[in-house]
Design goal:
By secondary structure, the chain is of the alpha/beta class. It is built from twelve helices and 20 strands. The chain has two domains: 14-28 and 68-334, 3-Layer(aba) Sandwich (Rossmann fold), CATH 3.40.50; 339-441, ANL, C-terminal domain (GMP Synthetase, Chain A, domain 3), CATH 3.30.300. Helix 5 crosses helix 6 (147-159). The protein binds adenosine-5'-diphosphate and zinc ion. The site of adenosine-5'-diphosphate has 20 residues, from strand 7 and strand 12.
């Protein structure tokens, strides 16, 4: 465990974040009971409670969450648009939506109190990752239905810092803003940070013409090696935060000054980690699908939401920051991103980890999966760092070989490697799409 703080250790709501564990568990149980009573206002849950004989009084401890039914994305879709609404529409203060990464977006709703809670939850991770009231923040997340833009906006406002709601897109304008307005904090997806970093490095922007100190990334999986690349490239600190619209949006968990995983805001979210096939809990510390029950949501309650995100909870005791909440790993991938190549399960993040270990490789890649004959084939297209592209066949072959073996040692699979020149592959302004799987079109 990391026991040296990266920055000053600050806590936004110690009354909740540092609750002694027995009190936290009692609070969770009490809130879970109330959440079950509230969810019964949603016909989908009422019908299941009646069928399974569930009553709120049966919820005596957090373990009783296992009596409750799971909720999956398809349930939200089959009750589209607002079948999960538990309050009259007159009490809704905001509607947002999922990004629709895996299909038609779904709507979510918030009461005034939901928005208020959400702001504090975002303030928690922002403050623990360096945000102060005197800072200026450039939000380069899309504003709109995506929960990232407005979620972070209200969290920053809660802390009292100044916001530049720039939204995503138009890298030239982003750079101009960084130079002219000199924000200390940047908010975006890690892929967009890569694109902005490209612009900054390629245009020879002097480091002292921008004032950036920290960036907060979320919205998509990224790796520790990618963090190192961006931190070194831009000379800033990058922080990870996690959330999803179905249970709120950003603010579900985030890193503290020690960066020992992301602290889960456990007073408001109950986490389980299950085997995605059997739906049984996995042993503590093992990876599985995260299942989340928000404990305080008024407008849009969901119970045991199966996120399809794969990760694990840390089991190495408490973090030196003083929070008593459990911590989660990075998201290793989504069950729907997982590639099955010749029977082997591979997450794109594993390939990213292999690539980022090779110095000559730039942080831009694309994974192409096909099945030209009977076997799956994977080709990884990778940009080479500017200046490393060589006319010498032998040098290029050496780089290719080291990439092939790095991929093989992490995934156990042989993949083809195609080296391409700088600035050839697609860049992303929001969530990246780095996998092209043509097998799905064939079978
Ligand atoms: P969609 O499911 O349509 O993308 P959202 O915009 O709500 O909807 O995105 C939430 C999803 O984004 C999460 O379920 C997760 O897969 C991904 N995500 C969010 N934050 C992170 C993060 N820090 N690391 C990895 N993945 C993340
Ligand atoms: Zn901590």
């Amino acid at each position: 465990m990391n026991t040296t703080p990266i920055i000053e250790n600050r806590i936004w709501q110690p009354a909740f974040e540092c609750l002694p564990r027995p009190q936290l568990l009692a609070l969770q149980a009490e809130r879970l009971r109330a959440a079950v009573a509230h969810a019964a206002k949603v016909p989908f849950y009422k019908a299941q409670f009646d069928r399974l004989g569930i009553t709120p009084e049966q919820i005596k401890s957090v373990d009783d969450v296992r009596r409750l039914p799971f909720t999956v994305k398809a349930d939200l879709r089959s009750h589209y648009p607002l079948g999960f609404l538990a309050v009259p529409r007159s009490e809704v203060a905001r509607y947002q939506g999922t990004s629709g990464t895996t299909g038609k977006p779904t709507w979510v709703a918030y009461t005034k109190s939901d928005v208020n809670n959400w702001s504090d939850l975002c303030a928690r991770f922002l403050v623990s990752g360096g945000l102060r009231p005197d800072h200026t923040v450039q939000i380069s997340f899309g504003f709109g239905l995506f929960t990232g833009g407005f979620g972070l906006h209200y969290g920053i406002e809660r802390v009292g810092a100044a916001i530049i709601p720039l939204s995503s897109g138009n890298s030239e304008r982003q750079l101009m803003c960084m130079q002219d307005m000199r924000p200390e904090i940047l908010i975006c997806t890690p892929s967009y940070a890569l694109k902005l970093m490209d612009t900054i490095l390629h245009e020879g922007v002097a480091r002292d013409s921008i004032a950036l100190e920290h960036a907060h990334f979320g919205g998509e999986p990224w790796t520790e090696d990618m963090r190192t690349r961006i931190e070194t490239g831009l000379g800033i600190r990058c922080w990870n935060n996690y959330g999803l619209a179905e249970v709120q949006g950003p603010g579900v968990s985030g890193e503290c000054a020690f960066r020992n995983g992301m602290h889960i805001q456990e007073d408001q979210f109950l986490f389980e980690v299950v085997n995605p096939e059997t739906l049984e809990p996995v042993p503590e510390g093992e990876k599985g699908e995260l299942v989340i029950t928000p404990l305080c949501r008024e407008a849009f309650p969901v119970l045991r939401y199966r996120t399809r995100d794969i990760g694990y909870l840390y089991s190495d005791g408490f973090c030196p920051c003083g929070r008593t909440t459990r911590r989660m790993s990075r998201i290793l991938g989504r069950t729907d991103d997982m590639l099955i190549i010749r029977g082997v399960n591979v997450f794109p993040s594993q390939i990213e980890t292999a690539l980022m270990r090779i110095e000559a490789v730039a942080p831009h890649y694309m994974i192409e999966v096909s099945r030209p004959g009977a076997m799956d084939e994977v080709t990884v297209h990778i940009e080479i760092q500017p200046g490393m592209f060589s006319d010498s066949m032998r040098e290029m072959q050496t780089i290719r070989d080291s990439i092939t073996s790095a991929i093989q040692s992490i995934t156990g699979l042989h993949m083809h490697v195609n080296l391409v020149g700088p600035n050839t592959l697609e860049r992303f302004e929001g969530k990246s799409r780095r996998v092209k799987d043509s097998r799905k079109l064939v079978d």
